[in-house]
Design brief:
Helix 1 (11-24) crosses helix 2. The protein has 3 helices and no strands. The protein has a domain at 11-40. By secondary structure, it is an all-alpha fold.
């Protein structure tokens, strides 16, 4: 895509662009593009999909099952000093 250079951007516009970039934690370039897309009506916000297909499994282990699992993965949590 070709670059577009903008000159003499008013201070209040610069402030708004930088504010949006900082607020959304995006680059100034991306903020300008989003503002332009919003203005002409083509911005497609990403919808955050809430997944709840595993909800029935959350918290379903018994205390014994949780202890068995913790014991099984404990070896993977140990640091091998020889490798460091």
């Amino acid at each position: 895509m070709r670059a577009i250079t903008l000159r003499n951007i008013p201070a209040e516009v610069q402030k708004a662009i930088r504010s949006k970039a900082q607020q959304k934690r995006i680059s100034v370039n991306k903020a300008v593009i989003e503002l332009l897309q919003e203005r002409i009506g083509i911005l497609q916000e990403r919808k955050k999909t809430a997944h709840n297909d595993l909800d029935e499994l959350a918290g379903s282990w018994s205390a014994r099952e949780a202890k068995t699992f913790e014991s099984a993965v404990e070896i993977g949590r140990q640091i091998d000093e020889d490798l460091w």
